Amino acid sequence: MAQLWGGRFTKETNQLVYNFNASISFDKKFYRQDMEGSIAHVKMLGKQGILTEEETKALVTAVKQILQEVEEGTLEISHQYEDIHSFVEATLIDRLGDTGKKLHTGRSRNDQVALDMRLYTRQEVLETDSLLEELLQAILTIMDHHVDTFMPGFTHLQKAQPVTLAHHFGAYFEMFRRDRQRMQDIYQRMNYCPLGSGALAGTTYDLDRNYTAEILGFDGPTLNSMDGVSDRDYLLEFLSALSTIMMHLSRFSEEIIIWNSNEYQFVEIDDAYSTGSSIMPQKKNPDIAELVRGKTGRVYGALTSLLTTMKGIPLAYNKDMQEDKELTFDAIDTVKGCLALFTGMLTTMKFNKERMEASAKNGFTNATDAADYLVNHGVPFRDAHGIVGQMVLYCIEKNIAIDDMSFEELKAISPVFEQDIFEAVSMQTCVEKRLTIGAPGQKAMQKVIVMHKEYLKQDWKKDIPDWERALLGE
Fold this sequence. Notes:
- This protein is mainly alpha-helical.
- Helix content is 61%, strand content 4%.
- It has helices at 15-21, 24-27, 31-47, 53-72, 84-96, 109-145, 165-190, 209-215, 225-230, 233-259, 287-310, 326-348, 353-362, 367-376, 381-398, 407-413, 421-424, 427-432, 442-457, 467-472; strands at 150-155, 158-164, 267-268, 350-351.
């Protein structure tokens, strides 16, 4: 058992206790962040004269070499070490002797792991944002091509009023745009460096925390050392945002699953994103959409788990906080995978325009417009509502749509109807006359699409320095 803290102890740790306590099996995931943080820390120690120039150069060179060997696969992160920090430091000591022992000067594993997790999460926030951006672009492309694809809009899963596919997808554009805004908020709020907080009360060494923060691309150091080592709010925010992303993906998946059914046949999912049945040869199952819907609970579980872990922890660091990693790693990987697959499914999906428009007509989605027609011809709204209700009942009995009624049939229900009623209740008229911003009318939708295109040209990440390459001197 390789550990770096045994001076206080007279007995070996029980193997089961050691295994239970160890975190290398999962915290090795941020080996790169751990070594980047060590490089920044050593450079700061050298700048402050705490390490000599020779020691600084030797340590930086050795850490970079270890990182290269790990990434090339020539050096294995062994599970004989308690955690990733122990692995790096022990490897340095093996190679540099006493100089390697100076790596940990002025820091604790508490502020070290706080830094590692923050660096890792920050990068994952950026990657999640990029995947959301790709999804938004896919949605916008579909919107641009379907401003005149009529379909039923729903309330209570009942056909309500006619809209367009562009308008329907536009609702999801708004959801995922808000998700991107949450990524930006999280990044800005979390972008402060905990390194230098020590175990909980800082250190007596003359550290330059601003310099370390600058090297690592942070906006500055955290301003309270106790909070610096025990803060996991940024993780809770990120998991909450990931849960919201999954909720949006799940709602979208639910609709695609319904639209893919034989009863609707609004969409055809590409073969690459479907599977068949082992027994029923006619089946084409929307497995990707169903899995996205199913994995939503998995991400919710990570958020609930961390909230529960953090709710009773006194200041400052406690070992409970080691539980912030495994479920968070899994949630991040799950969401990123779902976003990538869902985007691919959308971009290859085919839409049955004729079937969508027929569904809107047969669902009496233009009934409200028929009532508006009567109101505009002097009929009180409550009376108009009753007249159109009779029309719908008549159509149900005849198994026809309002559009299919003859002029004589309409006149028999209300003498107020004139020939222009047919144009008034056509799908195109019902949609196109809704021109307020945010409505499905083509002119309104085109304005929104232009705004969305301008939005996607902007990149809030463009001003973020490429701190990783700068740190490694590449």
